[in-house]
Each structure stands twice: as C-alpha cells, then as structure tokens.
Amino acid sequence: MAQTTSDHQLTTTQRGHAPAVPAGTEAPAAPTQVAPVRRPAPWDAWWPVRFYRSSIGKKWVMAVSGIVLLLYVLLHMIGNLKVYLGRNEVNHYAEWLRTMLTPALPRTVALWILRTMLITAFFGHIVSAYQLTRMNQRARPVKYQSPRDYVAANFASRTMRWTGVIVGLFVIFHLLDLTWGTANSHFVRGDVYDNLKHSFQRPVVAAAYIVANIALAIHIYHGAWSMFQSLGLNNPRFNAWRRHFATAFAVVIGVGNVSFPVMVLAGVIH
Amino acid sequence: MRVHLRVWRQPAAHAPGGFEEYDLDDVSPDMSFLEMLDILNEQLVAEGREPVAFDHDCREGICGSCGMMINGQAHGPERGTATCQLHMRKFDDGAHIVIEPWRAAAFTVIKDLSVDRGALDRIIQAGGYITAPTGSAPEANSLPVPKEVADASMDAAACIQCGACVAACPNGAAHLFTAAKVAHLNLLPQGQPERFTRVQAMVDEMERWFGSCTMHGECEAACPKEISIDFIALMNRDYVKAQFKNRRLIAQSA
Ligand code: HEM
Ligand code: FES
To answer: How far, in Å, from the CA of B33 to the mean position of ligand 2?
Structure first.
C-alpha cells in the first residue's frame, strides 16, 4: 500500500518534468504532423536554465532588466535637469557620481557597481529580445498571405524591436559623444555642461538625440505597461493605473530628454 | 446581397496553395458566414469543381471547430463571435471578403481552410485535467467557492479551443489559450493540489510549439469568448511561483 502511494506521488511530481507522452509511444505521424519549433530543456536541468528556456522566463528577464533600465533613464534624466540650475550644479553633480559612497568605497567604485548592473541589464534585455524575436519568427514560418487587420496591437507594441534597436544604437553614439568624447571634438573630461552644449550645437546630433528619445518614449509607452503582465502583476485594483503609469513615464522621459537639445538650440543653455 | 470572395485553396498539407476568386450573387443578409460558404460549395459542386474545405460542427459558437481569417481578422470583424455566429449582414452589399486559414508553425493546413490544431490538444494532455478519479460530482455545497473565483474560473473555462488567439497573435503564441486552460483549474479548490505541476507542464508543452507573448492584446480582441489577457498574467505568476514552490509547505499557502 505504502509502495503504491509513493509511486503515485512520484508520477504526479514528475509530470511537470517528463514529456507528456513517453518518447516512442506517440501515435504514428499524421501527414499534417509538424515537428516542435523548440525542444524544452532536459527535465533535470538546473531550474534557472529551465525557466529561462521558456518564453515566460525570457519575458521575465526582459521585464526585470526593463525595470533597471527604466530606473536608470529616470535618474539620468533627473540628474541632467541640473543643467537648468547652471554649469556648477551639473558639473558638481557629475563629480558626486564619482565620489558617491566615498570614503567607504574608493572613488568611482560605487559608480562602477551601478554601471555593471546597467550593462548586465542592457545585455540581458537585448539577448532575450533577440531570442524572443527568433522564437516568434519560427512560430509562424509561413506568414499570412493577405493583409492583417490589427485591432488591439498599437504602434508602440508593434515597433518594440525597432524602437529598441534605435535606442541601442543611440546609446553607443551617446557614450562615444559624451562619456568618452571620441565623437565630440570639444570634449573636456568633467565639464558636462560645455560638452553637452557643444554636442547639441551640431543640429544633426540634436536631431538624432530627439529622434532617439522619441523612440525611447514610444518603447516605454508599451514596455512599462507590458512588464506588469510579464511579471504577473495584475489586480483589478490597479490595472487601470498600469496604463496611466506607462503613459506618464513615457511622457516624463520623452519631454525631459528632448528638452536638452531644444534648449541648447534655443540658446537657453549657453 | 452580392459578395466577392478571395479564398485560400490548397489541395493538401505541404502542397502549394493560392487564392481563388468567386462571386456570389444571391446571399441573404440573414445567412451565417458558414451558410454563405455552403452556398459557395453548392455552386462549386454544381459546376463540377472541388468544394472549399472548412471545419465546422455545432454552428452555435460552442464547439470551436470553425475558424478562419476573414479580411485579416480571426473569426472576422464582429467582436466576441465565432465564424459560425457571424452573419452576412455585418458585410456591405458587394463586399470583397478575403478568407485564409489560421497560420502558425503548429497549425498545418490540412486542406483549404481546415488546419490541424492538435498542438492545442497536446497542451491539454500535458496537464489540463485533474488526475484524481473522484467519481461522480460531490454535493455542491460541500466545497464552498467564493462567487468571484467561480466567475473568474468560468470566464476562463469559456475557451472553446478554436485557436483564434494563436491565429491573431502577431507572434503565433498560444499564451491566451494555455492561460485560460491553466486558470480554469488553478483558480478552483479542486485544482490546487496540482496547481504548480500543471502550470509547469502545460507551459513547457506550449513552449514546444508556439511563440512568445508581447502583450499586443490581439488574442483577447479575436477571442470569440472574449477571454481576458489578465489570465496570461496569472499564468506568468504561477509559472514563476512553480520554480520556487516547496511542495511540502503548500498546505500553508497556495
Ligand atoms: C534604456 C533603454 C530601454 C528601456 C528603459 C527598455 C524598457 C523595456 C521594458 C520595460 C520592456 C517591457 C518588458 C516586458 O514586456 O516584460 C521592454 C521590452 C522590449 N525591449 Fe526594451 N528597453 C530599453 C532598451 C532596449 C533595447 C536597446 C532593445 C533592443 C535592441 C530593446 C528591445 C526590446 C524589445 C524587443 C521588447 C519587447 C519584448 C517582447 O515583448 O517580446 N529595448 N523594454
Ligand atoms: S462551428 Fe462550433 S463554434 Fe463554430
């Protein structure tokens, strides 16, 4: 009797791991039978591996890394608003970023910890975005041969890949321009205010900056809503607020960031 | 009323297919979409041509057999309606109507508009049931279920497995279907003992065949039973929890 019970428990627990139909016992292939588009992780794989193999796991990585990136773009934007308080304020703030948590930590160590988190999030976000995109392409190898008429998908949700790529390329240029100075002939290390001013006085750079930040705002408009769903944060009490939150976040980031090149070109930052 | 049809014709699985055009001159606005196709098929048979193959059974919106892409929308333009419940009065006189089968890697075209949706059955086989053979239904009042929970479970159970969510999803994902089938049992007390093994097994099976969810919301809009994408969030949450649950402590909180 005890034996029967434990056997039963074993099969019940294993059901989540072993394939539903043991290999070799599947019905003979119908002419319409298709091969799976993906193989699951082996059932005894380490759980984070199994979890990440699933699209839900990848979306969870997208959402968590998205939150890190959202926090970053928000703090970055707020920090940059200090240009409106004047040259000394913003340069002093930039220096503080380097001396943060000193003397407990040596200079720039705290900044590098944050940067490491950011780089990890960025790569996690991009790698899972790429893998999810490939997964979706495999899931519909033959496209609809007549035009689709979308009813719910909006511009933001349908362009996540493109707004994401625009933001990614822009980040590279942004680092070359204002962090390393390679793309900025007037670059003076530590003089944030003038670097920014000289950069945006080039209309092409200002235009690219504006385009990239509009793309970022569009990305956030869908992403900052979608991440709640990915993480399973769904409750009738706050569901309506998720939409408002994402819209507000997108507007705040978009308006704040676009204001910098506009204000340089308008001569307010001079 | 008159309609101009452009219908996908494909003689067999993996055979090349293409659109063919047909004109119907005497369609009643009170006909259902499938009745309109019946008229087309009678006309084709009378002309000695091969009729259009399409799936249908109950014709009252409950079996989930019917389903096709009508003018780029799964089950056509009417919300919360399966193809068999769509009426020709929703179209203008002289309308051009394009009809295409569901398209997804897992849904092979069997013939014309009929597709093999067996992959959805495999998801159910993986865990869309309660294992224990419990005999006949117990006295209903012996297992109290809060009204809200019963309603939510019922909303999920409305799924007729037609595959419109997969067809409508730009990513070819079956998240809404799987989420509905997971939630239908995972919300109820009877579903609790296998709650986390169920979500793990069903999601893992889904992953073998379908794409990923980007939250476009197209599935919810296409669903003839208007099942909410809120259930996808529930499934995502249970799937994450399933990674962490210590089954021996389950009695303390589900
Ligand atoms: C600072 C920059 C960025 C922020 C704040 C951000 C934020 C987000 C957030 C919050 C999501 C939603 C995640 C979810 O639905 O769970 C998301 C999704 C996405 N992101 Fe980003 N992201 C950024 C940069 C990028 C970059 C550089 C790329 C790619 C090259 C990218 C590609 C995507 C894609 C493709 C999705 C949709 C994934 C899917 O639902 O299938 N993002 N992003
Ligand atoms: S034929 Fe049964 S749902 Fe349409």
So the answer is: 11
Helix or strand holding residue B73 (H, E) = strand B73-74
Is A62 inside any structural domain? yes
Q: How far apart, in whole angstroms, are the C-alpha atoms of residue B132 and residue B196?
A: 16
CB atoms A38 and B207 under 8 Å:
yes
Average pLDDT, consecutive stretches of 10 residues, N- to C-terminus, chain B (254 residues): 96 93 96 97 96 96 96 96 96 97 95 96 95 80 91 97 97 98 94 92 95 96 97 97 76 57
In chain B, which among 175-204 make CB contacts under 8 A with chain A? Answer: 194, 196-198, 200-201, 203-204
What is the tens place of the pLDDT at every residue in A100-139? 998 999 999 999 999 999 999 999 999 999 999 999 999 9
**B235 vs A contacts (CB less than 8 Å):** 56, 232
Residues B124 and B240 in one domain: yes
Ligand 2 centroid – CA B63 distance (Å): 5
Q: Do A145 and B100 touch (CB under 8 A)?
A: yes
CA nearest ligand 1 atom 21, residue: A164
Domain of B44: which CATH number? 3.10.20.30
- What is the phi-psi region of residue B10: left when phi exceeds 0, alpha when psi lies from -120 to 50, beta otherwise? beta
**Domain identity same for B134 and B230:** yes
| Closest-approaching ligand to the CA atom of B57 | 2
